[in-house]
Specification:
By secondary structure, the chain is of the alpha/beta class. It has 2 domains: 124 residues, Nucleotidyltransferase, domain 5, CATH 3.30.420; 174 residues, ATPase, nucleotide binding domain (Nucleotidyltransferase, domain 5). It has a 5-stranded mixed β-sheet with strand order 3-2-1-4-5. A 5-stranded mixed β-sheet has the order 8-7-6-9-10, with helices on both faces. Helix 11 links the parallel strand 9 and strand 10. Helix 5 packs antiparallel against helix 7 and helix 5 packs antiparallel against helix 10.
């Protein structure tokens, strides 16, 4: 077939593009800013800049002009959904085939190398998504920090703050979490910290980052912190099981990949692996490739190709 193929992972913090040839060799990579919102404020301009920035850089590395190249196939996945972005993309990128999707399919394709399976994502929030060999997909979780996101970093911190509040009021078990959270934030009390969480001083990403305090306390033997992480692992295992039940047969061997900052916790990660592998014929592990490589795999698949990727750069 010849030609070039494009994969793009557009997220809330950055956008990454990869260009590959028909044999799966990565020829160029580029990085841009966040592009999850288009309709709000200056979102359209930021989106265009992020796409032109990352795809333009990848094109330069590949030795082609972004405004002149026509890709054989392109796949672009976005955390904010695809509908409002597709018309803009068709103005900026020329491709014989263009697939615009959410970030879940590209994350799964990268995590499993294009094979059927399940991804369980636990970053600030949490969601699980899977696809079987017939192309059927299912999801569980991902309902946001008010109604869901169990097992994610924000929820872990929320449970820790609740434990600190109970201790402060005299009806909770002993835990170092209160002292550690106050030290990490400079708050005077758990009550003070609670109120800070409703201000711009502690937005959700900063609250989620405090989950590291919980992990450290758990590693040092704090019972309450350990229970919080074990419960988080249990909830992530439950949504994984829910997705598996919907689209896979009981006897099928299913690849399950874990993604996201919450899984940096050794205790959470090992407990999650244990629960998922005990709960069925599952093989749990880290992703093979990042989502941008998954988008490229999806671009190849749309053209009827399944090359093995090579020269995949280190993406952060």
């Amino acid at each position: 077939m010849g030609g070039l193929f494009l994969g793009v992972d557009g997220g809330q913090s950055s956008t990454t593009a990869l260009i590959g040839d028909e044999n799966g060799k990565i020829l160029g990579a580029g990085k841009g800013g966040p592009c999850n919102h288009v309709k709000t404020g200056d979102g359209r301009e930021k989106f265009a800049n992020a796409i032109r920035g990352c795809v333009g850089d990848a094109c330069r590395q590949a030795g082609v002009d972004m405004d002149a190249v026509v890709f054989e196939s392109a796949c672009l996945g976005f955390s904010g959904g695809p509908k409002d972005k597709e018309p803009l993309l068709k103005e900026m990128i020329r491709s014989r085939r263009m697939q615009v999707s959410t970030d879940a399919p590209i994350a799964l394709a990268g995590a499993t190398g294009g094979e059927p399976g399940i991804i369980t994502i636990a970053g600030t929030g949490s969601i699980c998504w899977g696809r079987n060999s017939q192309g059927r997909s299912a999801r569980a979780g991902g309902w946001g920090y008010i109604f869901g996101d169990e097992g994610g970093a924000f929820d872990i911190t929320r449970q820790a703050l609740r434990a600190a509040l109970r201790l402060e009021e005299g009806w909770g078990p002993p835990t170092v979490l209160r002292a550690r959270l106050l030290e990490a934030t400079g708050a005077e009390s758990a009550n003070d910290l609670l109120h800070r969480c409703y201000t711009v001083d502690l937005p959700r990403p900063k609250i989620a980052a405090l989950s590291k305090v919980v992990d450290q306390a758990a590693e040092e033997g704090d019972t309450v912190a350990r229970q919080i992480l074990e419960r988080a692992a249990q909830e992530l295992a439950e949504i994984t099981s829910a997705v598996r039940t919907q689209i896979f047969e009981k006897e099928e061997l299913v690849m399950v990949a874990y993604i996201g900052g919450a899984f940096k916790s050794r205790l959470l990660r090992e407990r999650f692996r244990e629960l998922v592998e005990l709960g069925g014929n599952n093989r749990v592990g880290p992703p093979i490739y990042p989502p941008a490589a998954g988008a490229l795999i999806e671009a190849y698949a749309a053209a009827g190709l399944r090359p093995a990727l090579s020269s995949v750069p280190e993406l952060k």
